[in-house]
Amino acid sequence: MRISRMTAIAAAAVLSLGVAACGGDDGDDTGTGGTTASGIIGKAQGQKKLVIGVKGDQPGLGLQTGTTYEGFDIEIGKILAKGLGVPESGIEWKTTVSANREPFIQQGTVDLVVATYTINDERKTKVNFGGPYYIAGQDLLVPTDSTITGPESLDGKKVCSVSGSTPAKRIQTEYPKAQLQQFDAYSKCVTALAGGQVDAVTTDDIILAGYASQAEYAGKFKVVGKTFSTEPYGIGLKKDDSDGCKKINEILTAAAADGSYKAAWDSTLGKSGKAAPTLDTSKLTNCS
Amino acid sequence: MHVFQDEANLDLYLTGFLWILKLTAASAVIALVLGVLLAAMRVSPIPVLRGFGTAWVNIFRNTPLTLIIFFCYFGLFSTLGLSLSDDLNLNNYWLSVVGLSVYTAAFVCEALRSGINTVPPGQAEAARAVGLTFIQILRIIILPQAGRAVIGPLGSVFIALAKNSTIAGTIGVMESSNAMKELINANGDAVIEIFLVFAGTFVLFLVPTGYFFGWLANRLAVRR
């Protein structure tokens, strides 16, 4: 009772603030543009610095070795920083895991998140998304001689994914006949797959391709290649920063046109033999 | 409090703590039995058994529990092929129970050994003088008194065990820390709320547990 009343008061306060802010905006629309300076554009212009949240444990996408990061997400991050006018030395990479991406954005720990971040409606209520810069899909990684041909042939099989992740949840709800092994990192899943304790590892195809192309597993695994979900990877930023979001989409469109997007792919995931995707600019979010 | 009003989320929360309960209960029983055996070994007159007990305590008490549980999966199960159930969840559960038990047994053993020191040596000498064997002395004279002296410390070991059960999550048991991770993953805006509810649940159950052990220790204390 007490809590709900407190919540109501807080909500009312937030609402009235929001209304006040709207009123203020109307007033100085033609002014100095004070609202944009609060977003990533403002920060990039003012401080020439950006904090970008990335994954640190996904080969080909975002992999941390020592203090340096490499991968496709990292290259996308560099393209964005460049487009925003921030030099490469002004980028601070911050390792995020799936569970802390929204809190990091909301609390301002990071300015942007480029970390295999699927755009979905639930997340859209909490953060804003630029992109998608790549459209992935959930797939299966299996040993080269496996008989698994897709999610339908998973009955009774042991499938590994990261605990609490969306791919794990999808297996639980849509393919309940599969036995789900959950670990806290995909690398453990891949170790278990190499040891034969699980029959398949599941997550987005692009992540699996990264593991399959790792030197120590060369020739041992294959990606089944039959995706059973659509995972548009977006760039996460604060909910109210729609100007920043629009700017990101502009940068991505430009990168697709001038070939830097393809170059980013070729220098990272392209090494697995997968051809560079084309960035479909018609699918870019409307940033609302 | 919107997160826990959703039935699926509430279910996840309850399942998480149900696993904690199951892990704690099974491990507590096994660790107690193992701990008593180890304590008996450590005070026994046979050097090999004493050595075994000392080695057990020193190895498991000084290894991080995460490593032990991780080893149970990737060492015992993966490499050595020790499968405890065909069902994946049950297999992981029992592997975790093995890890938690061997770890906690080391602490139970040390607690009991300190209890044995509270029994006056004259009692053992008198028992030996009337012709009781080592096992009999331990079973009839020493351990009952030692056990009653260490109920308080054993309570601490038990509380630690209940919290340590969350580490079973590293090998995929859907215990509370994994449930919490899943909820936070889906509700990034309610991190503090989710955290407080999970932490609060542990406190809510473990504070009375601590008082219970304190009360029991007081009641059963050996008056000398």
Description of the structure:
The complex is a heterodimer of chains A (288) and B (224). Chain A has 288 residues and is an alpha/beta fold. Chain A contains 10 helices and 13 strands. Chain A is globular and about 55 Å long. About 8% of the residues of chain A have low confidence. By secondary structure, chain B is an all-alpha fold. Chain B has a domain of 156 residues: MetI-like fold (Orthogonal Bundle), CATH 1.10.3720.10. The longest helix of chain B is centred in the first third of the chain and has 37 residues. At the A-B interface, α1, α4, β10 and α7 of A face α4, α5 and α9 of B. Chain B: It comes from Phytohabitans rumicis.
For the record, the CATH class of the domain at 18-173 in chain B is: Mainly Alpha
Specify the biggest β-sheet of chain A.
Answer: 5 strands, mixed
The span between the termini of chain A is 35 Å
Percent helix of chain B, as a range, is over 70%
Name the beta content range of chain B.
under 5%
The name of the CATH topology of the domain at 18-173 in chain B is: MetI-like fold
Strand order of the largest sheet of chain A: 5-1-6-13-7
What's the rounded overall pLDDT mean of chain B?
92
CATH architecture of the domain at 18-173 in chain B: Orthogonal Bundle
CA-based gyration radius of chain B: 21 Å
Shape descriptor of chain B: globular
InterPro entries (chain B): AA_ABC_transptr_permease_3TM (IPR010065), ArtM/GltK/GlnP/TcyL/YhdX-like (IPR043429), MetI-like (IPR000515), MetI-like_sf (IPR035906)
Keywords (chain B): Amino-acid transport, Cell membrane, Membrane, Transmembrane, Transmembrane helix, Transport
Subcellular location (chain B): Cell membrane
GO biological process, one term (chain B): amino acid transport
